[in-house]
Fold:
Amino acid sequence: MIESLSLHKPHIEHWLVLSAILFAIGLYGLLSRRNAIGILMSIELMLNSAILNLAAFNRFVAPASVDGQIMALFVTAVAAAEAVVGMAIFVAIFRHRRIIDVNRMDLMKD
Amino acid sequence: MISDAVYTLLFYAIAIITIVFALAVTMSRNLLRAAVYLMMVLLTTASLYIMLDAEFLAGIQVLVYVGGIVVLIVFAVMLTRSAEMLDRPPLRRKLSAGLASVLFAAATIYIFWTSAFPIAQNNVAVPPNNTEEIGLKLLDYGSGGYILPFEIISLLLLATIIGGIVIARKTPPPEQPFTTGGDLKGEADFDAPHTQRPETISRKHI
Structure:
């Protein structure tokens, strides 16, 4: 039992598959939610899986350097900025229209 | 050998927990609960970073995501009363979204599983001064340094602070430059429809 477990230590493919599954779940939320804040949460999930990818590549492809972790830090900062602006826009829209359903935000459609 | 076995066990356990909570984030109808599930996903991902020998990244994840973004999301859910309105997507939309994401996952996993990555051969251990290396590299202006993106990110964060305040604030303070004037009339008086604000009105008439 212990031997077989220690022989099947997760390799880079396992980490990448995990992050692909998380990204697909985020994609499902992005496409199926109607509330704009729910969509933003799904985007955070997807960004998180992208960061996991960067960290996994850093660990397995170039373990002596830290470039992947630095790029992950940049992704984190951009995600924080995006969340702040997104939330501000949603609060402003809610104050105007009392609803943040993305199906009904179609002013620029026609 | 024992540590390898424990590592494998931990990886699969944490991966399953993360996937379950991520599914809960996208399927929960109450958005406040979805925010709590999102916090759990981010915490388990932080433990995955620790398993990848990226301790600084795990700390930043807990500080920025769990301490900042999730709190912001909870505030936004409460300010927009999204927790009262349950999010029920129609079945057709659920099916098409599920089909799209399953197809995406299948294609990506197939590509990941069949391609060969340039793995570092002698599975060298990560140097213990990981965090110190990150700090040195972020402020390094030689070749391979990251000083320029670092400065650009700080500029982006500054712009975000100002943008967030300008977009989300309720009323423009009077006698201040750079007010757009667009939100003077209707929207600012939404909560108290008949309040007159003599400063702004007099300024407009002048």
Summary: Chain B has a mean pLDDT of 82. Residues 90-116 of chain B form one domain.
